[in-house]
Amino acid sequence: MLAGRDTTSAALTWFFCLVSMNPEVKTRILEELRANSHKTCESSAGQQEKYRVFDAEELNQSPLYESLRLYPPVPFEQASVLQPEVLPSGEAVRPGTKILIPLYTMARMESIWGKDCLEFKPARWITEKGKLKFEPSYKFMAFHSGPRICLGKEVAFTQMKSVAATLLFNFHFQVLEGHPVSPTLSIILQMEKGLKVRVRQRHPDALKQVTVQNQH
């Protein structure tokens, strides 16, 4: 949990930014969340709660995957070899040589993701049957790949989906006009100027009729 604190917050920042700047994506997410918002239950205190809290599985994952593709929380990885190796490109690598893997750049390569690689396009993660599309970890490397893939991947996804669904349903986010949105090069891919948004409660009157169960 502690190890993923900064990466999770950075990932959610980019997610909310991209969704707020793409109204059609936000509309589809809200339609799906509203379809689930009729589920009600009492809180542990038996009191009416003001906001609807969503479970992790109630959020369509494709926008989150697409956000992680474009803005991986860790923008680059470093590797080395113990024995002499030859890369698929034909380059020879000697032991001790440091290899930099630019995940941020790879997500923007047409040869990997197609001509629309620079677009925020959640639909690329949906199959013809409407299911979430699987992409091998060596292509989608937001959580690294192979035997050293992030051990906290599922925990991080559960956190992000629950937080994203709950906040999007209950609040409207709008990036302030003129606010520059650009990444800063560091171990964690954060926004250079942070993310300044205007937040307002989406439908306060309707939400007063909804009860939720505390998550433990």
Automatic annotation (TrEMBL):
Heme binds at C150. Belongs to the cytochrome P450 family. Its cofactor is heme. The lineage of its organism: Eukaryota, Viridiplantae, Streptophyta, Embryophyta, Tracheophyta. It comes from Cinnamomum micranthum f. kanehirae. This is Alkane hydroxylase MAH1-like protein. Keywords: Heme, Iron, Metal-binding, Monooxygenase, Oxidoreductase. Signal peptide: none annotated. PROSITE patterns: CYTOCHROME_P450. It holds the Pfam family p450.
